[in-house]
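Q: Could you fold this chain for me?
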Amino acid sequence: MESNSHVPDSWRRVPLKDVAHVVMGQSPPGDTVTDWNGEGDSSDGLPFTQGNAEFGAKFPQPVKWCSAPAKIARPGDTLISVRAPVGDTNRADRMLSIGRGLAAVRFTGIDPSYGWHVLNETKRGLERIAQGSTFEAIGSNDLLTLGLLVPSIEEQRAIAAILDSIDEAIERTEEVIAATKRLRDALLHDLLTRGLPGRHTEFKQVRGLGTIPAGWDVARLGDVCERPEYGASAPARPYDPVLPRYVRITDITDDGRLKMDDLRSAEPEKVQGYELQDGDLLFARSGSVGRTYRYTSKDGPCVYAGYLIRFRALRELVLPEFLELCTRSGFYHKWVESILRQGAQPNINAAEYASLRIPLPSLDEQDHISHSIACLTNSIGDSRRATHVLRVTKTSISHQLLKGELRLSGNRFRKEGIER
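A: Sure. Below is the predicted structure, expressed as structure tokens.
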């Protein structure tokens, strides 16, 4: 692959077989593979994985155990998916039994970390050569003849160190995001069951909600909102920035954000009256049932599609921000599960959502609770943006470094003869 592409000065192009040993996965007998609880002794077998469905951010998370491993990956091996989707990679952090969906690449002639980054960069090329009548796949020869650009060992290590440092920064930022999410969830639970610290001394048990301050009211969602409205039935069309965005269930993440890929619009005359106003809360009535999104003007003009239900808060009774927090709570998720168990179809309609019981503090306390959680949510958003910048930076710089377009000279980068 890429045999005719430019080879930088002092670099060489070699097939993978010259610098690595490749172990193609093999399915062991079915009676040797069982569910795994995360514990086990290597003398009795190994964790078993056969594809990128179990790939994590960097290391796989096997859920099966093999008592008679046929093919084994060692710690430090690069794992590469050889069946659709082809080319995804992880690294083995322990001894693993690997099935037919994977190959383990064990670098022997180049720096293993450099090799790991090179294989990450080859995903698109592997997809092009993947073959198969019913699904894409690559064979051992495809891997063994894969062409790699190889600089000196010193430059390999320097490139790997730079890319590793970006990966580590991404991992640290993601750890901060995960920790902040846990803190936010714990704080939300406390605020919705105990109220603001020091403000309440007496509490009561409410069916479906659990413990809440004795001075709080309880209301149904339909009593504190305008009449709910179903979304438009207009078909989606390619996104046009001149037109409002068309929000569909698939555009909403589990934690209530709008995805920024696969944007859509709709014919303007077919979505009149479905414009979202600041604070409107959308509920998914099918598919990802229970998923919610609170519209804010920062998301730009939007209209909403069918299978979403709009609830608009009566602000003299409840704040939209507080309503959204209720849909992030434990009692809400339990309520959704109970409604789905009772129904014949996996959906929740407007009348059912309107029956949802919520705690109702004073508007002042709702505001303080919402602000407390918003501070943590904003922190998560800042960290997500930082992660995005790091990923974009890595994508750009890794391509240039691994193609020899950006060279290292001492402690400086050099590109086309210009040092910086």
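A (continued): The chain has eight helices and 26 strands.
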